[in-house]
User: Which sequence fits this backbone?
């Protein structure tokens, strides 16, 4: 490619008026996720508006634990929660591994619908939450500031946490492989809360379980590239590059130049503009895009993205300016490569 490709995490979302209209039509967020035609509609909205170089499935990372019977629901102004959080060894032992084409059939139908609607315009990225990130929600029962219940299990019963993560690694692997069979061209694992762990905990629980997912996918979907993204884990990028993935997402707390040195060419890098930068206005955004491109430097192996998901009230003109700036400025970094 003669320029740096660009797409944004959470590019289909509440910052778009057309998304808000579709969500209102669905009635609520879960209904939107569980209606394949509407999930397809919102997946394509940012492609139609901005011409991103990839589409990402519109869904939620908590579909897998919901399919395991924990009772996902959304609380106004608070976010996702479970009716039946995991608070005992018996509850963990009783967790089933869902069949992606049964309990999660609506996701696979959405992938198939989106793939048909895209008609080859751009590749489709499927995704899942990492085992550790899913475990935090399942144990806490909702989002958390300090993850006391999950971290207590990490320190008090690491064996039981490992049992849960092993089961989740299998469930996530089967889920992602089914997305590939339904039409996904690439896969991304979101380790939103990996950076909350101590270094030993990150290696032993978060990274180890993501490695399990990648290794299992080598058996189930060997030709499909996998992107790993662990928020707040910049210190571990070198280790993550050895997990067998094709690319690593980098959040805005890390320099892409440092990340590039850490991975040593073993994987591509994706990132890493601070999502809040998009509130600065189009002219400022262009300069900030230039800084990110210069930070990575010349040559292939960079996918322009944000360092985390796009924020709710982001001005659409800033997103358009970002895409335009990447297209205008990035070819200079690919000449002769």
Assistant:
């Amino acid at each position: 490619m003669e320029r740096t490709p660009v797409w944004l995490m959470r590019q289909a979302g509440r910052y778009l008026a057309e998304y808000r209209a579709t969500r209102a039509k669905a009635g609520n967020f879960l209904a939107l996720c569980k209606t394949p035609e509407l999930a397809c509609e919102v997946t394509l909205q940012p492609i139609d508006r901005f011409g991103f170089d990839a589409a990402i499935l519109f869904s939620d990372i908590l579909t897998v634990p919901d399919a395991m019977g924990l009772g996902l629901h959304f609380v106004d102004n608070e976010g996702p929660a479970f009716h039946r959080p995991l608070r005992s060894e018996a509850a963990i032992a009783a967790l089933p591994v869902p069949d992606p084409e049964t309990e999660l059939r609506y996701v696979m139908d959405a992938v198939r619908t989106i793939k048909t609607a895209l008609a080859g315009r751009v590749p489709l990225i499927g995704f899942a939450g990492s085992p550790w990130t899913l475990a935090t929600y399942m144990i806490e029962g909702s989002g958390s500031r300090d993850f006391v219940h999950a971290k207590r299990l990490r320190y008090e019963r690491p064996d039981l946490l490992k049992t849960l993560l092993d089961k989740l690694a299998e469930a996530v692997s089967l889920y992602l492989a089914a997305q590939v069979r339904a039409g996904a061209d690439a896969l991304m694992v979101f380790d939103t809360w990996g950076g909350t762990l101590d270094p030993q905990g990150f290696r032993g629980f978060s990274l180890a379980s993501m490695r399990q997912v990648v290794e299992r996918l080598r058996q189930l979907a060997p030709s499909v590239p996998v992107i790993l993204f662990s928020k707040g884990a910049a210190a571990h990028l070198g280790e993550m590059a050895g997990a067998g993935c094709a690319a690593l997402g980098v959040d805005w707390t890390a320099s892409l130049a440092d990340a590039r040195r850490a991975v040593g060419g073993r994987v591509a890098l994706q990132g890493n503009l601070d999502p809040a930068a998009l509130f600065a206005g189009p002219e400022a955004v262009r300069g900030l895009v230039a800084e990110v491109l210069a930070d990575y430097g010349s040559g292939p192996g960079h996918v322009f993205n944000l360092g985390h998901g796009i924020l709710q009230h982001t001005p659409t003109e800033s997103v358009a300016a970002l895409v335009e700036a990447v297209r205008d400025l990035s070819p200079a970094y690919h000449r002769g490569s």
Residues 158-182 form the longest helix (25 residues). The chain has a mean pLDDT of 96.
